[in-house]
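My main concern about presentation is that the manuscript never shows what a single data entry looks like. For the editor and my fellow referees, an illustration may be useful. For illustration, here is how one protein appears when written out as sequence plus structure tokens:

***
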Amino acid sequence: MSNFNKHETIISAGIDIGTSTTKLIISRFSLRNVAGAAHVPRIEITDKEVLYKSPVFRTPLQDAVTINVAGVQEIIRSEYDKAGIQPSQIATGAVIITGETATKRNASEMLHQLSDEAGDFLVATAGPDLEGIIAAKGSGSYEESGNKSSRVIANIDIGGGTANIAVFQNKQLLGTCTMHIGGRLIEFEDGKVRTISPPVEQLLKDQGYSLQPGDPQRAPAVQFVTSYMAEAMARILKKEVHAQDQVLLLGHEPNWSQPIDTIVFSGGISECMYRHSSDEEQAAQYDDIGIQLADALLHNQLLQHFTWQEPVETVRATVLGAGTQTTEISGATIQVAPHELPLKNIPIYQYDFEADLEVGLSHFEDAVHQAVTLYDSAKEGQNFALYLSNLPYLGFRDVQTLAKAIVQIMNQRPRPEQPIILVIQSDHAKVLGQTLAALQVKQSVICIDQINVETGDYIDIGKILASGVVPVVVKTLTFHTT
């Protein structure tokens, strides 16, 4: 794409594989080089058009924790056929695997199987925090947080098993939290309780309620569960966690620092809340506590203290695919370990120094722990790149201080021997990379600069070219928002 100088279109596929449902969207991106003729090409998506939307399928499973890859392939092949698209026409795309069934083993198998027939796909396994961020981007909350008067917006994506909360201000991630709140945590059959999930069983026990499979659907304990979930949600959003709420927390406590102004609900439960399907459809479709949970959230008094906003998309906040833009980076300002290249699908975690080295370093360790939680929740060694933005002017001593902090913190990763990958907004990559090398770090160091990325993007870093530059492809997940 480096000789890109005209308008071009590419076809992209976006495939969401969740705990309960799988869906696919095929879209056409219009690309344009927005840099001037004399500059390094910068390719941006200028238009997105949906060509085909699949129905929502039940995710094919081999067992409780393993996705049936062949079953997913079958869905994708038949949907390509219905859309009239050959796999060879698809230039880019994203497969996002979310929910409890998304094991790393499945993700690598999925990548291997799909790349043969589906082009250059980004395959990501999203733990609960990343799932919350993807949902916030898909629902429009992320974009909205950058629009008006620095509001703090919480996107609450509630599906079958979990509520994933992601909090943003000015398009910066402030924090996340995941709760055992979802429609399928109690399921019904013929007007009777069929299944009760372990967190709900524990909640009932803690609160002195009794509920068994076979009890009537309208049992008081069921009503108690949905009301309690709504109250616990309000407390978590206000960061007033009670001891008895711990049973509904999955992982860490809420970790944002600013009070939330606006709440946006997305996911399957939001369909019930905003009544996007007819009541008859809902009654037939939801043989679980989904509708009661939606009502409890809508009528909870504590939640009324926030400003409510409808999402652009509810359940169909589906990825369209991964848009790509290629940037060549000047070899004069970078430091790379050629034997580590190429690297593919490295997730980005942005950290803002706010133009103050001391303040930035005081929270730096927390940020790296957050990046590990985000991209490597199973502690399996998924590496990531740190994007350091808004660095102040750095003198020699400052560069040394920053380099030492980076080494110390990167040694705390689950697999500390992995390369240290840094993307610097300003042109400090060479000096920082060389300082790290002078510290004789045990890891390879890849330090590049002057590209714009953000948390949730993925990058490919190509082999070093004869001219000393490396091509970098930024993959930004793009969503259907109309």
Q: What stands out?
A: The radius of gyration is 23 Å.
